[in-house]
Amino acid sequence: MASLKELKGRINSVKSTQKITKAKQMVAAAKLRKAQAAAESARPYAARLAEVMGSLAGKITVSENSPKLLAGTGSDKVHLLVVMNSDKGLAGAFNSNIVKAARIKAKELEAQGKTVLFYLVGRKGRAPLRREFPKQIAHLFDTTDVRDPGFDEAERIANELVALYEAGKFDVAHLFYSKFRSALVQEPTDQQIIPVPAPKAVAATAGADAVTEYEPEEEEILAALLPRYLRTQLFGALLENAASEQGASMTAMDNATRNAGDLIKKLTIQYNRSRQAAITTELVEIIAGAEAL
Amino acid sequence: MALHFELVTPAKLVRSEDVHMVVVPGTEGEFGVLEGHAPFMSTIADGALKVYRTDGAAPEEIRITGGFAEVGDKGLTVLAEHVG
């Protein structure tokens, strides 16, 4: 049986932990609202761009002369896995879920005899992936010095990816991030980003599309839009990830706060019991002493 | 008689309003868009959009980079990576 003093110490320590988890939960709730709003305001651009890409794709047949970003390098030997993680922990299984999805994909590709490389965004994915694939980390992208990853980061990532791609360092790129469903549900998602999967051609609305004029030619517009499309995809993923992180963090911290509360209750009962036992023993001793006189 | 003009960046919808005319610096030359323009798509050179709120008014200039313009039955939509 722990002594009274020990119990008191443990209760206090759990109480301070609870304060921390509670604070983090509230911070996450506030940030989640912001992150969600950011994700929502990014939608019009992404939707419009996808629409335009769709209507262009309907007019163009992919051939060898198509831009490499669309047609691919002609082989699929080297796969680059772009894994997006957060920089901070305290978000439950958020980061490990993304890492797990990436690891499964990597094993699968390796089993098919492909070469797998990693491009890591954010700090939290580094340690586990480096442990398992020490020689395959192609690049680390640091986001620790930015508060909210935004379009500038997406642009830099996209530029680096395109540069690596054009240098022939990889053939196919997959993006791993967490899709935000709700504060409770975040889905680790695997998405191919290079070569750009041909956007679904939208059914040409009768007549309207037929007379659309393009300047310059369709192919040129498409070539100009492809890198932008990639950037938008990365930007969207960054935002989804940010919202997911806050959501996961909020849920995890809510659970932690509740657990701490339960633990405090249990310890307090234990503490009171021992205190009463001590008083009873003391009384018994006094009475026994008095009777002996 | 007004042209519906929307300016969208990845971060947000910057403008959505009815104007008289917008002059867009397309990669193959400037073009002005009035109401009822034929469907048209073009990439935009980095430069300034000139927005005329009413006929003959002094234009308001919006600098954009990485732009793309689309004219449809809904009006003019400009997608730009950076504004300002």
UniProtKB/TrEMBL annotation, chain A:
InterPro entries recorded: ATP_synth_F1_ATPase_gsu, ATP_synth_F1_gsu, ATP_synth_F1_gsu_CS
One Gene Ontology MF term: proton-transporting ATP synthase activity, rotational mechanism
Location within or outside the cell: Cell membrane; Membrane
UniProt main location, coarse: membrane
Taxonomic superkingdom: Bacteria
Record's keyword terms, sorted: ATP synthesis, Cell membrane, CF(1), Hydrogen ion transport, Ion transport, Membrane, Transport
Pfam families according to UniProt: ATP-synt
Membrane association type: Peripheral membrane protein
GO cellular component, one term: proton-transporting ATP synthase complex
Gene Ontology BP terms: proton motive force-driven plasma membrane ATP synthesis
Family membership: Belongs to the ATPase gamma chain family.
The protein's role, per its UniProt record: Produces ATP from ADP in the presence of a proton gradient across the membrane. The gamma chain is believed to be important in regulating ATPase activity and the flow of protons through the CF(0) complex.
HAMAP family, per database record: ATP_synth_gamma_bact
Subunit structure as annotated in this protein's UniProt entry: F-type ATPases have 2 components, CF(1) - the catalytic core - and CF(0) - the membrane proton channel. CF(1) has five subunits: alpha(3), beta(3), gamma(1), delta(1), epsilon(1). CF(0) has three main subunits: a, b and c.
NCBIfam families: ATPsyn_F1gamma (TIGR01146), PRK05621.1-4 (NF004146)
Name of the protein in its database record: ATP synthase gamma chain
Species assigned in the record: Novosphingobium lindaniclasticum LE124
TrEMBL record, chain B:
Superkingdom of the source species: Bacteria
Cellular component terms (Gene Ontology): endomembrane system; plasma membrane; proton-transporting ATP synthase complex
Family annotation (Gene3D superfamilies): F0F1 ATP synthase delta/epsilon subunit, N-terminal (2.60.15.10)
Keyword entries, A-Z: ATP synthesis, Cell membrane, CF(1), Hydrogen ion transport, Hydrolase, Ion transport, Membrane, Transport
Domain ATP synthase F1 complex delta/epsilon subunit N-terminal: 3-82
SUPFAM superfamilies: Epsilon subunit of F1F0-ATP synthase N-terminal domain
Keyword NAD: no
Residue ranges that the Swiss-Prot or TrEMBL entry lists as coiled coil: none
GO terms assigned for molecular function: ATP binding; hydrolase activity; proton-transporting ATP synthase activity, rotational mechanism
Membrane topology summary: Peripheral membrane protein
Signal peptide: none
Subcellular location: Cell membrane; Endomembrane system
Keyword Membrane on entry: yes
Pfam annotation, one family: ATP-synt_DE_N
Main location: membrane
Quaternary context: F-type ATPases have 2 components, CF(1) - the catalytic core - and CF(0) - the membrane proton channel. CF(1) has five subunits: alpha(3), beta(3), gamma(1), delta(1), epsilon(1). CF(0) has three main subunits: a, b and c.
Functional description taken from the UniProt entry: Produces ATP from ADP in the presence of a proton gradient across the membrane.
Family: Belongs to the ATPase epsilon chain family.
Protein name: ATP synthase epsilon chain
Organism from which the protein derives: Novosphingobium lindaniclasticum LE124
Gene: atpC
